[in-house]
Design a protein that fits this description.
Layout (H helix, E strand, L loop, with lengths): L4 H6 L3 H27 L8 H34 L13
Length: 95
């Protein structure tokens, strides 16, 4: 395995990129739940199968939002706890 400059440049920033992406996804899932929840939670199904499926999908959206929120919180905690530590990429590690 040779030297890969892309990996050596990108690797120190993977934690930051992952943290930002999880925060972004949790915000998007919050928007999805808010929009579809507003449309379908208080809707009366009255035998319409499509409305029933969408009402069930709203709760799946809520679960997805909560899972991404938990992942985001964990990513932020890991980011701030691992920030000052030793690593092979910063040159402060003991080999």
């Amino acid at each position: 395995m040779g030297f890969d400059p892309f990996v050596s440049i990108l690797t120190p920033y993977m934690l930051e990129i992952g943290t930002v992406l999880t925060l972004y996804y949790s915000i998007l899932w919050t928007a999805v739940f808010g929009i579809f929840g507003d449309m379908y939670i208080h809707e009366k199904a009255e035998g319409d199968g499509g409305i029933k499926r969408m009402k069930n999908a709203v709760w799946i959206d809520l679960i997805n939002m909560l899972l991404w929120l938990i992942t985001s919180v964990m990513a932020v905690v890991v980011f701030f706890t691992m920030r000052g530590g030793r690593s092979l990429h910063t040159g402060r590690a003991s080999a």
